[in-house]
Amino acid sequence: MKRFIDENGTFEVRVPTTWKYSLQNEKVHTFQEYEIWKPDAFQISIQESNGEAQLRFQTLTKNLTSTEISGIKYYNFPESGDEGFITKSWTTFIEDRIGGT
Q: Looking at the predicted structure, is the pLDDT value of residue 26 above 50?
């Protein structure tokens, strides 16, 4: 596994050493397997929060199932794709916070 921290220090993620990184539309951080026969990929998009964004998020997630991990609730979108490539999507809303012990 290799450690990746985005240039603004917004997030940190560990991905397999064979995954490459790219940035799409200045917002979508994409990690994808180098080997063409392995279609694994992971994307993360971070957007600024405001009252309007919170309302849109609540509307978007009101009918979705959720999973809680480490005290954060993640909402699951229905899977899409076919047997060769399945897309799984989750979303969550994390407000600014300062961590530490």
A: yes
The number of folded domains in the chain is 2
User: For residue 83, what are the domain limits?
Assistant: 50-95
Q: What is this structure's pTM?
A: 0.66
Do 58 and 25 reside in the same domain of the chain? Answer: no
Nearest to 73, CA basis, from 92, 46, 86, 49? 92
In the block, which residue shows the tokens 């994808």?
A: 32
Q: What length is written for the chain?
A: 101
Is there a single domain that holds both residue 59 and residue 40? no
Residue 51: enclosing H or E segment and its boundaries? helix 51-61
